[in-house]
C-alpha cells in the first residue's frame, strides 16, 4: 500500500483551472470539442425522432361519372403495438446516454492532449535552461582562453575544439527553441487558433502531488471513464433493443376517418386496420440477441484492457520514482560547472577533458529529464479522468 506517497507529479487539471483557466479556454474554443458536441446533439435529436408517431395520411379520390360525380376523402394514422413505444423510449434514452459519454470521451482526449503539451513545454524549457547554462560556461571559457591564446598559452587546436563545441551547443539550443515554438503552436491550435491567456510559456517545473494506491485509479476508471460508460450504456440500450425487436412481431394498427359523396349521397365513418408482420420481423430478435451478447463481451474486454493499462502505468510510475530519487541527487550539483572551470584554470585537467566532462554531466542531466518526462507522461495517462472528476461544469 502506498497511500500518501509524495512524488514529483503534474496535477495540471487542478492548477490550470484554478490559476489561469487554460483548460476552460480550450474547451470553449477547441474545434474538435465543439464539433463533437454538435454531433452528439444532432444524433440525440435524430434518435428521439425515431419514437414519434407516423405522419397521418390523407387520400382523396374524385371520379368523373355520369349522371353524378363521386368524391372520397380518408384520413388514417398508423400506430405500433402499444408496448413498442415504451420499449423504444428506453432504448433511445440509453442510446443517447451512450452518445453523451462518447462526447465526453472526446473531451477527455483533448484534455489529455493539453496536459501532455504542457508536460512537453516544461520538458523543453528545462532543456533550454540547461543548454543556456552550458553555453554560458563555454562562452565565459572562450573569453578566458582567448587571452591565453593571445599569449600563446593555449594552442590553436584547443581553441578550435572549444569553438566547435560552442557552435554545436548553439545549434542544439536553436533546435530546442524550434521545438518550443511547435509546442506553443500546438496549444494555440488546441485553443481554436487563439492565443492562450495566462499561460506561462517559460514554465520549467513540475508541481508536487500525491500518488494514491493503484485501486484508487481503478475505482476512478469505473466511476468516471466515459469509454467504460459508453460500453455499459450500449449494453443496456441493446437489451431494450431486443424488446423492441420482439414487439416488432406484434401487429400494428391503422385508425382513421372516411367521408364519401357519391352522386349527392353522402356517408362517413371510421377506418380500422391491422398490419400482420409475417415477413418484416424475421431475424430481428436473433440479431438483437447477438448484438447484446457482443456488448457483454465488449464491456468485459474494455474493463480488462483499461485495468491492465492502469496497473502497467502505475507499476512504471513506482519504478521510475525509485530511480529518480536515487539518480537525481547524483546529477543535480550546482557547483559542478564551477569546479570544472577551476580545475581547467588551475591546470588540473586539459581542455579536452573539460569538454568531455561537460558533455557527460549534460548527458546525465538530460537522462534525468528523460526519466522525469516519461514519468509525467505516464502520470497524464494514469490521471486522465481527473478532468471529469474535478470539472463537471465544463461539459
Summarize the topology.
Blueprint: E1 5-8, H1 12-19, H2 22-29, H3 31-49, E2 57-63, E3 70-79, H4 82-150, H5 156-190, E4 208-211, H6 214-224, H7 226-247, E5 252-262, E6 265-275, H8 284-331, H9 336-345, H10 351-382, H11 386-390
Antiparallel strand pairs: 1-4, 2-3, 3-5, 5-6
Helix pairs in contact: 3-4, 4-5, 4-7, 4-10, 6-8, 7-8, 8-10, 9-10
The strand count comes to 6
Mean pLDDT score, rounded?
81
Radius of gyration from CA coordinates: 35 Å
The portion of residues assigned to helices is 55-70%
Distance between the termini: 34 Å
Widest sheet, order of strands? 2-3-5-6
Helix/strand-derived class? alpha+beta
**Morphology call:** elongated
**SSE arrangement, N to C:** EHHHEEHHEHHEEHHHH
